[in-house]
């Protein structure tokens, strides 16, 4: 268990909070079984609720958040997960998982964000952001990717802060790209034939 999880657990218990408000990783320290990501999460959460992107297509960047009220929300990226976490301020996340780029298979497995090491700002293309934020289940895999692709190694909290910091320019870039796409579609659509 990470020192971060122990700190959160002890801080919550010292404030008299119940385990329902303690993140899953810290619950394990308290003796309560941590929340586990559902195996069928790509079926339950097929599309990102914020941008509509297919989470299976972007399985390497997907994030899954389980909130204390039972809401399970799957996003395509850390960018959209930051939106989710902002909108659900009254519900504590009891589990957060991210695609493990150190994993193998047609669909990469999920890893708890407390165990992930993020590579931020590398040459790996970002999802919903110009500054990529890629998660790895082991520090060794993240360091190997960093050696090949550049970027900085970060914890989840640091990567999430980077997502919030990038949000304004990413949203402006996405809006511009969507407007250009709509314009191209309008220009390529033939004008209706005049009525006789």
Structure description:
The chain is of the alpha+beta class. The chain folds into two domains: 1-32; 35-176, no CATH class. Helix content is 39%, strand content 15%. It contains six helices and seven strands. The strands form two sheets. A four-stranded antiparallel sheet has the order 2-1-3-4. A hairpin with a 4-residue loop joins strand 1 (63-67) and strand 2 (72-75). Residues 17-22 have low confidence and may be disordered.
What keywords describe this structure?
single chain; 196 residues; alpha+beta; 2 domains; 4-stranded antiparallel sheet; 3-stranded antiparallel sheet; 6 helices; 7 strands; 39% helix
Q: How are the strands ordered across the major sheet? A: 2-1-3-4
Overall pLDDT score: 87
Envelope shape: globular
Compute the number of structural domains. 2
What percent of residues are in strands?
15-25%
How many strands?
Answer: 7
Alpha-beta classification: alpha+beta
Outline the biggest β-sheet. 4 strands, antiparallel
Count of separate DSSP helical elements = 6
| First-residue to last-residue Cα separation | 76 Å
Low-confidence stretches: 17-22
Write down the Rg: 19 Å
Oligomer: single chain
Instruction: Give helix % range.
Output: 25-40%
């Amino acid at each position: 268990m990470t020192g971060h999880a122990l700190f959160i657990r002890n801080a919550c218990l010292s404030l008299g909070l119940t385990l329902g408000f303690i993140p899953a990783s810290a619950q394990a320290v308290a003796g309560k079984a941590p929340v586990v990501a559902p195996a069928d999460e790509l079926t339950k959460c097929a599309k990102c609720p914020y941008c509509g992107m297919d989470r299976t297509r972007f399985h390497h960047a997907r994030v899954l958040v389980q909130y204390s009220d039972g809401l399970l929300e799957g996003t395509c990226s850390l960018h959209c997960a930051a939106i989710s976490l902002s909108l659900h301020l009254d519900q504590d996340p009891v589990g957060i998982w991210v695609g493990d780029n150190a994993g193998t298979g047609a669909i990469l497995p999920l890893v708890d964000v407390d165990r992930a090491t993020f590579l931020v700002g590398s040459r790996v293309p970002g999802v919903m952001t110009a500054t990529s934020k890629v998660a790895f289940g082991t520090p060794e895999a993240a360091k190997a990717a960093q050696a090949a692709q550049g970027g900085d190694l970060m914890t989840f909290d640091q990567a999430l802060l980077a997502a919030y910091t990038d949000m304004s320019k990413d949203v402006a870039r996405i809006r511009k790209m969507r407007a250009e796409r709509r314009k191209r579609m309008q220009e390529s659509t033939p004008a209706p034939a005049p009525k006789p």
